[in-house]
Amino acid sequence: MNKFLHIRKPFFFFLFLFTCLFTEQKTSAQLFEAGPVIGFNASQIVGDGFRGFRKMGLNAGVAVDVNLDKKYSVGLELLYSQRGSRFIPNALTPTADQEEYFMDYLELPIIFKYHDVAGMDFGGGFSLGRSVRNVYKLNGIDDTTNRFGEPSVDNGIDFGLFGDATYNVNQTFRIGFRWAFSAPVVTVNDNRIGRHSVISLRLLTMFGAKSEKSNL
After folding, report:
1. How many domains does the chain have?
2. CB neighbourhood size of 132 (10 A)
3. What is the separation of C-alpha 3 from the centre of its chain, rounded to a whole number of angstroms?
4. Residue 3 has pLDDT above 50, yes or no
5. In which domain, by residue range, is 18 found?
6. What pLDDT is stored for residue 48 in this prediction?
7. Least buried of 24, 38, 126, 209, by fewest C-beta within 10 Å?
């Protein structure tokens, strides 16, 4: 409960900011566009020894774009992002345990975009996140207390960088690909085990400043 109290104020502020942007978008359609985002993450923790983007999770929220001119824009998103890592025994490790980390974050990415005339958007930016859940499963059984301690370790504030490419299907629907890499080190039982690396595939449904984009 204390963890959610810590994240309440900053993220409620950003929710308020989004509300203001949505309101402004209705009255100034030439500048703003906004809409929901839904997709999935394929993630790993670089340094935990598991290797491979085997942990699947949700990537969903809302996004707002502000068009600076016909070719450039800046975007702000509020996302729920499920990360972690997963190890499944194979023929080379038949006696090993199956392990899985579930690590969920609230994220606030800020992205700078270039709009290509061929219908592609390219961008990059940084993301501020806050840990909201840590779960560990051993052979499919919840073993969070033994792995993270009691109470569960709080991985706190997360900061990451990312690159982004988006294909504009039409004036409303877009398919986006993103690769993100976090800066802070993931902590388990006071041991630093690695950093998040996440590949995301997402569908964006945007409404608003259609006439301002050079590729639409």
Report:
1. 1
2. 17
3. 19
4. no
5. 2-212
6. 82
7. 38
Cis amide bond preceding 151, omega within 30? yes
Which residue matches tokens 């988006």?
Answer: 166
CATH number at residue 117: 2.40.160.20
Distances (CA, A) of 22 to 16, 70, 71, 167, 206: 10, 21, 22, 23, 12
* Residue 88, phi then psi, degrees to nearest 5: -120, 125
pLDDT per residue as tens digits for the range 12-44 = 555 555 555 544 544 444 588 999 999 999 999
Whether the pTM exceeds 0.85: the reply is: no
Phi-psi map region of 210: left, alpha, beta (phi>0 left; psi -120 to 50 alpha): alpha
CA nearest to 176, candidates 55, 53, 89, 75: 75
pLDDT tens digits for 51-83?
889 999 999 999 999 988 889 999 999 999 999
β-pairing, 191-205 vs 173-182, is: antiparallel
Can you give the length of the chain in residues? 216
Assess whether pLDDT exceeds 80 at residue 212.
Answer: no
Nearest Cα residue to 38 out of 14, 65, 11, 62:
62
